[in-house]
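REQUEST ID: PR-0412
SUBMITTED BY: lab tech R.K.
PRIORITY: routine
TASK: structure prediction, single protein chain
INPUT:
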Amino acid sequence: MPDILAKIKEKHIPWLIALVILALYAPVLRHQYTYMDDYGLIVENFKFTGDIRNILQAFTQDAFGGKGTIYRPMLTVSFMLDAVWSGVRPWGYHLTNILLHLACCLLLFKLLKIFLPRASIAALFTFIFAVHPALNQAVAWIPGRNDSLLALFVLASALAFVRYVKNVKWQRLGVYLTLSLAALLTKESAVLLLVFIPVYGFVLKRKRESFIKLLPLLLGWLVILAFWYYLRNTALPGDSQLNEMTFNGFYENVNGMLGYFGKIFFPFNLAAIPVPVDTSIALGMASVILVTVLFAWKGVNSKPFFFLGLAWYLLFLLPYMVNSSGYANFLEQRLYLPMAGLLLMLGQSKALTSLDFRKRGQGYLAAGLILLLAVLSLEHNRKYQDSKTFWEYAVKTSPGLFYAHDMQGKVRFQNGEYTAALASFREAARLKPDYQHAYNNMGMALYALGNVPEAEMHFKKALAIDPGYAEASSNLGILYAGQARMDSALKYQIRAFRAAPGDENYAINAGRLYLQSGNADSAAAVYQEALGHQPGSFPLLKELGTLYFKNGRPSEAKETLTKAYLLNSKDPAIAGYLALLSFREKDYSAAVKYYDRAVELGQQADPRILDILRPYR
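STATUS: complete
OUTPUT:
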């Protein structure tokens, strides 16, 4: 009896791919935030991403809304589009991740059909890509979309590239360059697309014809590179992620690359944040031997396409031999785009392309492989369901990584598990004794547990490591304020504000301490200085306007609170203040409008004020 895989018509394969992906990743729609970048990129940055009118501004700042050095505007735009219909609810962002994965799989199938001898082999490799657990992080973890979004543009540009080479037309050149620019604006590693122009010229084997066809592509790339560099340099003037990059050690890179290779062929050693110290190279070495035997067995279909796939795989992994996080890590979503090249390379194996799905054993073997990978993937997806599960998984799979313990501690702290959080922070500090965040976090846990002297000591340890650490300064100021040591409290809150003048919270903390000390002028000065850094900060405008109101400065209060109201008309206190200020100015229609708004927003109505305003309605 012929196997069912052999009966599937080519036109039905895309629909079957879609069905498999939607079934496999449907549970992900219920997942929450992991608190590894996703909460910061979406919720904390929602003031910006939540307004679609900021879409052009996304190209003028970093991905974290001015708090980092990563230029990924297409990623930000994708979050902005999700925010239109999903707000900060994670399910909408997860749905987009799933649809991006589906689109990439369909593009990969189209591309593999061009380079592989049979559509059935292209379909097999596409199904493997669709369900492979090593690629889960690009789908189940929201920020992982940076790699699937990159793959979307790269795969589409590769198809446009092939069509242009087959039939030179300016329209096709324009499509290719536009897609390449979109890839560059998604992730810097897309610059490696430039390398594939001469590589593909080698594949064509017709030097003069290749040069004539490829020269416009090279010239076009010079233009889009210059444009990309201008945008990036404008968004990050004098600062760059490149400044933070450090090369991994030789052993770390060998370990990481072998680890990646092993996870493709034996995806049983996956990790949330893979680091060399906790990654075995045994499966990677076994995978190298397996691939060597595979190609030595029956040979290679096309050596040029073999080298094209190998170059694709290696070049798109090359950027991860450096890091900007302070430790070597090999996150699994980075395999997403390189794996497409590896599949192209494997597709040149005569041993694999000789598979005949009409034979029951070979068909069942292929179906069994896809089913096994899908089951492993379904189980692996659960590791991303919420922050507690994710960071427990991170600590279990990378016990030697200080960052995993620190983040697990933060999640425990947020859940009120202060003793458990303290244990996590202590382990982070043990693994990295100069990690200032661990000491600051220990101080917070100790303070929550009522151990004020030790909390003070740990905050000071953090500041000894990093004197400009604003959060530790602020926490120490809060501790001293709780002990009524106002001079010390003010000293450290001002220190925090000076270290991070763009953070409105430190300015507000310092201003309130000045007010408690009876120094309203100094409080106002701090708020005004902070507004110089953040002129559109609603909390700062509210604090300053309220201060003016309570200290008998009505004109300044009216001006400041009006600005705050224009930014957020849903604050009842501001509406109430504006109602009183308008009444004092004898602007009765404005007084009625603001007072009605305050009552509408939940402020308790005062019968006396209602009587006073009744004649002016």
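NOTES: The chain has a mean pLDDT of 90.
REVIEWED BY: pending
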